[in-house]
UniProtKB/TrEMBL annotation:
Transmembrane segments: none annotated. This is Ribosomal protein S6. One of its GO terms (biological process) is translation. Belongs to the bacterial ribosomal protein bS6 family. One of its GO terms (molecular function) is small ribosomal subunit rRNA binding. InterPro entries: Ribosomal_bS6, Ribosomal_bS6_sf, Transl_elong_EF1B/ribsomal_bS6. GO terms for cellular component: mitochondrial small ribosomal subunit. Gene3D superfamilies: 3.30.70.60. It comes from the Eukaryota.
Length: 213
């Protein structure tokens, strides 16, 4: 597991790998970090199982579907080392959300799922030789353009705190996600019989039983 000093040096370096030229590198100054952090995200240190709300701008747009960004909607699932304190997790979440918002995206929802056992032991450089069997799980739903998603993936890949991560495309626009297209092919077969059909079915059953007496 990376030490506290290694994480501090890692955060101070700013970029977590080579950044794309089209995407600005985030500043690691304390002033900018404080302006980006929201009180709802900082509440993770109070209750570890508490639902984490996205920033105010994200909550407003998510409540009004018409305020869509026009960008695809993605879902990020991430497993990180379990640390005895919350700053490593909180900093990682803030960094990911800040990258999305700095490039015109929108963070719609962040959930902390707590400390859980992994399906199998995870082995990665810098951790115990036998691997780890538990991790902190968190997810994030966000709107972003493909270059931002690639940059976020590259940063998570080289982050020493991250054990596993995956990003899935949920939908190309908000309407595809909020208005599901129901399968109507089974409506006819699921129609309930009316009273006359019930009587006819019952009578045919009686006739069938009478024929074999």
């Amino acid at each position: 597991m990376p030490s506290s000093s290694e994480l501090a040096d890692f955060e101070a370096s700013g970029s977590l790998g080579q950044s794309s030229k089209a995407i600005p590198v985030l500043s690691s100054s304390a002033t900018q970090s404080e302006s980006i952090c929201t009180p709802s995200l900082q509440s993770i240190a109070v209750d570890r199982h508490r639902h984490l709300r996205p920033p105010t701008s994200a909550r407003t747009s998510a409540a009004d579907p018409e305020q869509a960004t026009g960008m695809p909607l993605y879902s990020l699932s991430c497993l990180i080392h379990h640390y005895p304190t919350y700053p490593p997790l909180r900093t990682l979440v803030h960094t990911a959300a800040s990258l999305v918002e700095a490039n015109g995206g929108l963070v719609r929802q962040i959930d902390y799922l707590g400390r859980r056992n992994t399906p199998q032991r995870i082995r990665a450089p810098g951790i115990a030789p036998g691997g780890v069997g538990e991790a902190d799980y968190w997810t994030m739903q966000f709107d972003a353009n493909p270059p931002t998603v690639r940059e976020l993936t590259n940063r998570l890949r080289v982050d020493p705190r991250v054990l596993r991560h995956t990003t899935l495309l949920v939908g190309s626009n908000l309407r595809d996600v909020t208005d599901p297209r129901w399968n109507t092919t089974l409506r006819t077969s699921l129609r309930l019989p009316n009273a006359d059909e019930k009587i006819d079915t019952h009578q045919r059953a009686l006739d069938h039983d009478y024929a074999f007496q």
